[in-house]
């Protein structure tokens, strides 16, 4: 009996017990579908977060006050840490290969315009923000480069903030109050959307010096630098370190390149995707138990059939292949059905819930399908061996 004959016989045996075979395959179908759905959500979140980090460009370096790595220094030494200032930002902007440097301070304040008011994020930034963060002005202009000492009380509104405060009224030239200070609106930004929980459209942009006074801060929260694409991030990072050490007298700051941020985020999110895949794989183990149980029952129910096959000349190897083929066929049907069901559900989710980031992770899908086949083989081996070892005379006598 060749492999084709064995496949036909295994298919006929499975089809003769449709309900039992369907319930057996259902365990694998649900398991594979769970892996497909969970890994698609994990991969979607992975791509979504990385896209959020790169929407401002890919040649950015951020400098933060304070050193994140400790060296066992005393508390007295910590007090000598100098704050990041707008003068530091101006100095870094003069470095080779640095295209623009932008100081940044962020806080929350009450915004008032006429009889309307709301609380929102206020970003204290520099004139280079449109270039560094790749934002565009919709109307008016962005903050001018007024220098460090006396920035003017100008404000630029996000698109949502403009609508909330002024409706259909033209906001340029209008006065608003931020906290206790008054500002004149000189521009409105184009819609940008959210970035990791921050709604950049529901914000107000003012000069960093004004924001430091408003929030009573002695240091910038960060300095963002845009560097030339023809230069490596490591070269610019070393130049920044040398310049700030010369200005501060010590390395009391932290430099984070965008590549470092992306690598860390990528590793964390890859672990997340692997974790949800492992969670979905638990269902595959349940499916393997189902196949093992059903095939064991099938051997017990078909003792006389096995005896007849052995009596007419079937060798033990053929009986083993027959029952193993049934297990493989069940796992093949279950795996294929699970992949089709999972992909269909992911496509439906993408169509009807566009806010949910999903992306098919084909490497995990192929791995899950291969594992389902392996599970079918592994679960079918023990019953197949039991069937092959039955004594023909005793099997016939069981009739």
Automatic annotation (TrEMBL):
Q: Which residues form the MacB-like periplasmic core domain?
A: 21-242
- Ranges of residues in domain ABC3 transporter permease C-terminal: 279-392
Per the record's keyword annotation, is Transmembrane helix included, yes or no?
A: yes
Q: State its location(s).
A: Cell membrane
Q: Which UniProt keywords apply?
A: Cell membrane, Membrane, Transmembrane, Transmembrane helix
Q: Tell me where the transmembrane regions lie.
A: 21-41, 268-298, 319-344, 364-385
Per UniProt, what is the membrane topology? Multi-pass membrane protein
- Give the primary localization class: membrane
Q: Which domain of life is it from?
A: Bacteria
Tell me the protein family, please: Belongs to the ABC-4 integral membrane protein family.
Protein known as: ABC transporter permease
């Amino acid at each position: 009996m060749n492999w084709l004959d064995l496949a036909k016989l295994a298919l006929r045996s499975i089809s003769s017990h449709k309900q039992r075979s369907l319930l057996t395959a259902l365990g694998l179908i649900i398991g594979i579908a769970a892996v497909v759905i969970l890994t698609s959500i994990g991969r979607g979140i992975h791509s979504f977060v990385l896209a959020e980090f790169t929407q401002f460009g890919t040649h950015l370096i951020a400098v933060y006050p304070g050193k994140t790595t400790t060296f066992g220094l005393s508390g007295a030494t910590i007090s000598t840490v100098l704050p990041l200032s707008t003068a530091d930002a101006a100095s870094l902007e003069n470095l080779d290969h640095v295209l623009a440097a932008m100081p940044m301070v962020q806080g929350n304040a009450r915004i008032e315009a006429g009889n309307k008011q709301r609380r929102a994020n206020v970003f204290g930034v520099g004139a280079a923000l449109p270039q560094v963060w790749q934002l565009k002005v919709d109307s008016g202009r962005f903050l001018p480069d007024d220098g460090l000492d006396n920035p003017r009380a100008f404000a630029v509104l996000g698109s949502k903030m403009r609508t909330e405060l002024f409706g259909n009224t033209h906001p340029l030239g209008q006065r608003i109050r931020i906290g206790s200070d008054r500002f004149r609106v000189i521009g409105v930004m184009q819609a940008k959307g959210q970035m990791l929980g921050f709604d950049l459209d529901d914000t107000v942009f003012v000069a960093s010096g004004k924001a430091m006074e408003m929030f009573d801060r002695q240091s910038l929260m960060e300095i963002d630098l845009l560097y030339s694409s023809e230069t490596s991030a490591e070269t610019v990072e070393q130049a920044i370190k040398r310049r700030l050490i010369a200005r501060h007298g010590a390395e009391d700051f932290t430099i984070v390149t965008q590549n470092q941020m992306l690598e860390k985020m990528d590793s964390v999110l890859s672990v997340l995707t692997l974790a949800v895949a492992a969670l979905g794989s638990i269902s595959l183990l349940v499916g393997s138990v189902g196949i093992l149980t059903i095939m064991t029952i099938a051997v017990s129910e078909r003792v006389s059939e096995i005896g007849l096959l052995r009596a007419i000349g079937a060798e033990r190897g053929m009986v083993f292949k027959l029952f193993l083929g049934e297990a493989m066929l069940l796992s093949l049907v279950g795996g294929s059905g699970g992949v089709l069901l999972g992909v269909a559900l992911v496509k439906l989710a993408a169509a009807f819930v566009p806010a949910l980031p999903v992306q098919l992770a084909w490497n995990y899908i192929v791995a899950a399908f291969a594992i389902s086949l392996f599970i079918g083989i592994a679960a079918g081996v023990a019953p197949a061996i039991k069937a092959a070892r039955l004594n023909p005379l005793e099997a016939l006598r069981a009739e």
